[in-house]
Each structure stands twice: as structure tokens, then as C-alpha cells.
Model the fold of this input.
Amino acid sequence: MRVLILLHRWLGVAFCLLFAMWFASGIVMHFVPFPAFTEADRLAGLTPLDLAGVRRSPSEAIAAAHSDDRTRIQLVQRSDGPVYLMEDRTRTIALHASDLSSAAVRSAELALSIAKEFAARRHWDATAAQVAALETSDQWTVTGQYDRDRPLYRIALHDAPGTELYVSSATGAIVLATARRERIWNYAGSVTHWLYFAALRSHPAAWGRLLWWLSLIALVTASAGAAIGTLRLGIRGAAFWSPYRGWQALHHWLGLVCMIFVLTWIFSGWLSMDDGMLFSTGVPSASEIAALTGAPDWSALPRDEARQLDAQTVEAAWFAFGGRIYRREHTRSGIQRLALAGSSAASERAFLTGKDIDALASRLAPNCSPAFVVGITDNYVSVPAVPNAPVFRLVCGDDWFDIDASNGVLLEKLDPSRRAYRWLFGGLHRLDFPVLTARPALRTALIVALCALGFVFSLTGVVVAWRRLLSCLSANPDPQPRSY
Done:
């Protein structure tokens, strides 16, 4: 008991403010998530292709990129003409579709023009837009997902919402859009909750280890408190009794009330930093991705492939799947069309089918059952790139593979470890249980109520810790040496 009291007392003094911050910022995060740029956001800002400017074919662009591991190529329109975008394992290359010269953005004027064109498509006011900075990273682009696009031109529109756009210098693509409101609220939400300060987050290994240890020590602190609170609970007659008085008694009672929630929430928060140490990550291996894409012959693409595109197309993409090359088109009206490359016209279907996926299942893993569409109510549903696109699942023994039917991407590998992690993190930390996700208002109310209770409980710990520090600094003896 003495060891538990010492652990809880002094770790509580050190971590009580962190507990309070985690609960308060968790409420903010539920309503204002960290800025992100979805596929729907990107497509909404694209301009119809100028097909007359497409004078070189996708196969010529692939050859000019001098890379053997290309699995997809995109054709998009920019203010300076149509551009091919090609991504491999290490970099993204942009080439002008007119002459295959580099399409990297090397001037602020071009970046501003691209941003204004995007804003016009979204009906945003860009009359006062200016290039704010050319940055390697900032608070909102510090994560590794932007490494291929750095440095980034940050364009401030100076409109009413305070919109800022980030333009990739490597490709000219808009990679992020933020508004003043979400930036401000994120300092009280995600940035605080995850200690997501750019100076720290720019060192991902150090940031990850720091969060992992802080969460683990917080879990030890809470566990010691739960043990003390339970063991110190007395019974007098038919009523429970606490040996503490004042703020310490309030801390004791509130701790008993929210003990299960606090322990599971801190534990699942610690698991959020697992990064493959205890559970699998769900990231497919390079060999599994290669089995899915196959070895396409890009040189076999017809030189007139781009001529098959519709005049209303805002983006064309060619991707490898099962050794074959598919052409995907997004039209101005938001429709996706899919066909085998080289066909004279896009088929009426929009997505890959179960037959397409079953044809390569044996390459991916042995003993796979026929692919089926994952329902939106599935407990392990993956999110496709295109809204409302089907996700097919291959069940191969204990391993499940989720494949995006809109672009042939292997979204996630769900082995037993990953499926357990889904419940221990998603379920316990975000209350992502089917009975609650089907009732979003109830789930929101529970998250707010439980985090608010945890915040009040943490504040009582702050008061107790402050009084403990004052008693240590004063000459007066501690009036309650057996308390927290």
C-alpha cells in the first residue's frame, strides 16, 4: 500500500495537468478533427482536361520517368496545361503532357495561379490571394505523408473563412486546405492532445517514444489510484465510506465512479502509439502489393490512349491490377468510369467487380474464399478513396484483405492481431462500437459526458496535487499523512 500511495501521489503531482488536458482536448477533437484533405476535396477542385494539349501518351510518360516500379499514372489539368503524375516508392514525378518536360512548380506565380484555379472550382473567393510562404513543413503539414510534395507553397486566400491552400512544388497538386476556425480549434484539440507541436513532431521517432512513455506512465498512475481507491473504500452499515475529507474525498469518490472509463481510455490511448510493437499495423507487405498489381507492360498501352477520354473528364488514371492495366476516368459531374486500357470506350461499370478480384486471389494468398462487398455496418470496414465505392474483402484463412474497387488499392490486411487492435483501440478509445456508431447522437453524448467527467475528476487531482506541493514547501506538517 505504501508503494502504491507513493507512486500515485508523486506521479499524480507530475501528470495531473496532463490528464486534465487529455480529457478536455478529447472533447474538442471529436467535433474538430485535425485538418485533412480527402479524395472528394481533391476531385471537387479539378478542371476538365484540355485534351488538345495532351500530345504525349501515358506509355511515353512512363518511359520518360525512368522507373520500373510504376503501378499507376494520373493525368490532370493545371493552369499551365495537362500534366502526368507518377508515383513510385520514393518520389513523385510530374511531366507536362505536351512535351514530357518537368512539371515541377518552381515559381510562386505558378503556385498562386494553380491555387486560384482550384479556389474558383470550389467557389471560394481568391481575389486577394497571396503566396504566404514556401515551407518545408509547418504545424499542419509536419507528418510524413507530405514528404513527397515538399517544399510546399502556402497560399493565403484572405477570404472570410481564412482559407489557406498548400501547393506541392513537386507536382503542383493541392495537398491540403485549412480554414482559420479549424486551425484555432486544433490548438485546443489535436495539437494539445497529441503534443503535436511542429518542433517536436518534426522528429517522429522522438515524438512517438515520448507519447508512448507518457501514456504508459499515466496508465501506471491511474492503475495505482484505482487500486488505492478500491482498497481504501470502507463499509459502515449499509453505506460505503471514504477515509478522506474535502477535495481528497471528492477525488476518491469521482475516481471510483469513472475508474473503468479512465483506465480503459488511458490504456487504449497508449495503444494508439503501438506502431507494430504489440499488434500488427495492417499495412500490406511489398510482396502482397506486388501480387495484387502484377507486372504490367506499360509499353503496350496504345499511343492514342488519351484520345479515348471524354471531354468532360477532369482526371484520368491508369493503374495496374492483376497484371492488367485499367483506365479510370472522373467526369465533371462526379461520375467514375472504368475500363481496360486500350478499349475504345469506357464501359458502363464504375468499379472493379468481384470477378476481377477473384481472378488474382490465388496470387495474394492460398485458400481464399470468393470476394464479397464489405457492408457499411461491418465491424472492420475500410474507407475507400471515392465516397460510396465498394470495398471487397478476400478471406484467406485467418487473414483478410480489403481492396478498394475504385482504384485497385489494397487498403488493409486484417489478421487476428489487427482485428483485436480494432476493438482495443477504436472501441475503447473512440467508443467505436456498432451499437453506438449506428446512433451517432448517443455516441457523441457519451463521449462528451465521459470526457467531461474525466476532466472534472482530473481537476480534483490538480487541487490535491497543488495542496500536496504547498504542504511540502511549508513548515507545517502534513495534516493527513495517509492521504493522496
About this structure: The CA atoms of residues 375 and 438 lie 13 Å apart. The two ends are 12 Å apart (CA to CA). The chain is about 40% helix and 20% strand.
